[in-house]
Write a structure and sequence with these properties.
It contains three helices and no strands.
Protein backbone atom coordinates (compact mmCIF):
# COMPACT_ATOMS: atom_id res chain seq x y z
CA UNK A 1 0.00 0.00 0.00
CA UNK A 2 1.35 3.36 -0.96
CA UNK A 3 0.50 6.78 0.44
CA UNK A 4 -2.33 7.40 -2.06
CA UNK A 5 -4.03 4.15 -1.07
CA UNK A 6 -3.81 4.99 2.64
CA UNK A 7 -5.20 8.47 1.95
CA UNK A 8 -8.08 6.96 -0.03
CA UNK A 9 -8.92 4.40 2.65
CA UNK A 10 -8.91 7.01 5.42
CA UNK A 11 -11.16 9.45 3.56
CA UNK A 12 -13.54 6.76 2.29
CA UNK A 13 -13.90 5.34 5.79
CA UNK A 14 -14.57 8.84 7.13
CA UNK A 15 -17.21 9.31 4.42
CA UNK A 16 -18.75 5.97 5.34
CA UNK A 17 -18.91 7.09 8.97
CA UNK A 18 -20.83 10.23 8.03
CA UNK A 19 -23.23 8.26 5.82
CA UNK A 20 -23.85 5.97 8.78
CA UNK A 21 -24.32 8.93 11.14
CA UNK A 22 -26.87 10.48 8.78
CA UNK A 23 -28.77 7.21 8.61
CA UNK A 24 -28.82 6.94 12.40
CA UNK A 25 -30.08 10.53 12.59
CA UNK A 26 -32.81 9.71 10.08
CA UNK A 27 -33.97 6.82 12.23
CA UNK A 28 -33.54 8.32 15.70
CA UNK A 29 -34.60 11.98 15.53
CA UNK A 30 -38.22 12.71 16.47
CA UNK A 31 -39.46 15.21 13.88
CA UNK A 32 -39.17 15.69 10.15
CA UNK A 33 -37.04 18.83 10.23
CA UNK A 34 -34.43 17.30 12.55
CA UNK A 35 -34.28 14.18 10.41
CA UNK A 36 -33.94 16.23 7.26
CA UNK A 37 -31.13 18.32 8.74
CA UNK A 38 -29.17 15.31 9.95
CA UNK A 39 -29.57 13.47 6.69
CA UNK A 40 -28.63 16.28 4.32
CA UNK A 41 -25.65 17.56 6.28
CA UNK A 42 -24.14 14.18 7.02
CA UNK A 43 -24.72 12.78 3.53
CA UNK A 44 -23.23 15.82 1.79
CA UNK A 45 -20.15 15.65 3.98
CA UNK A 46 -19.93 11.88 3.56
CA UNK A 47 -20.13 12.15 -0.21
CA UNK A 48 -17.52 14.91 -0.20
CA UNK A 49 -15.12 12.77 1.81
CA UNK A 50 -15.74 9.84 -0.52
CA UNK A 51 -15.00 12.00 -3.57
CA UNK A 52 -11.81 13.32 -1.97
CA UNK A 53 -10.81 9.76 -1.13
CA UNK A 54 -11.39 8.57 -4.68
CA UNK A 55 -9.53 11.40 -6.41
CA UNK A 56 -6.02 9.92 -5.96
CA UNK A 57 -7.21 6.63 -7.48
CA UNK A 58 -8.41 8.15 -10.77
CA UNK A 59 -6.43 7.89 -13.96
CA UNK A 60 -7.29 11.24 -15.54
CA UNK A 61 -8.15 14.78 -14.58
CA UNK A 62 -11.47 14.64 -16.43
CA UNK A 63 -12.61 11.75 -14.23
CA UNK A 64 -11.82 13.85 -11.16
CA UNK A 65 -13.72 16.81 -12.56
CA UNK A 66 -16.71 14.56 -13.24
CA UNK A 67 -16.69 13.34 -9.64
CA UNK A 68 -16.49 16.89 -8.30
CA UNK A 69 -19.27 17.95 -10.65
CA UNK A 70 -21.50 15.11 -9.43
CA UNK A 71 -20.75 16.10 -5.83
CA UNK A 72 -21.71 19.70 -6.58
CA UNK A 73 -24.93 18.63 -8.28
CA UNK A 74 -25.84 16.47 -5.30
CA UNK A 75 -25.23 19.37 -2.91
CA UNK A 76 -27.45 21.73 -4.91
CA UNK A 77 -30.20 19.18 -5.48
CA UNK A 78 -30.28 18.12 -1.83
CA UNK A 79 -30.52 21.77 -0.79
CA UNK A 80 -33.44 22.34 -3.16
CA UNK A 81 -35.25 19.15 -2.10
CA UNK A 82 -34.67 19.91 1.57
CA UNK A 83 -36.09 23.39 1.11
CA UNK A 84 -39.21 22.03 -0.59
CA UNK A 85 -39.78 19.36 2.06
CA UNK A 86 -39.17 21.78 4.94
CA UNK A 87 -41.48 24.44 3.52
CA UNK A 88 -44.24 21.86 3.07
CA UNK A 89 -43.82 20.67 6.67
CA UNK A 90 -43.88 24.24 7.98
CA UNK A 91 -47.02 25.01 5.95
CA UNK A 92 -48.75 21.92 7.31
CA UNK A 93 -47.76 22.77 10.88
CA UNK A 94 -49.05 26.33 10.53
CA UNK A 95 -52.41 25.02 9.31
CA UNK A 96 -52.71 22.74 12.35
CA UNK A 97 -51.82 25.45 14.86
CA UNK A 98 -54.75 27.73 15.68
CA UNK A 99 -54.19 31.45 15.42
CA UNK A 100 -53.74 33.27 18.73
CA UNK A 101 -56.75 35.21 19.92
CA UNK A 102 -56.70 38.86 18.92
CA UNK A 103 -56.44 41.46 21.64
CA UNK A 104 -58.91 44.30 21.34
CA UNK A 105 -58.37 47.66 22.98
CA UNK A 106 -61.39 48.82 24.97
Amino acid sequence: MNLADIFSVIFCLAGLFFFFAGTVGLIRFPDVLSRLHALTKADNLGLGLMVIGLLPQLSSLTDGLKLVLVWGLVIFSSAACSYLIASQVINEQSLKTPAPPSVENK
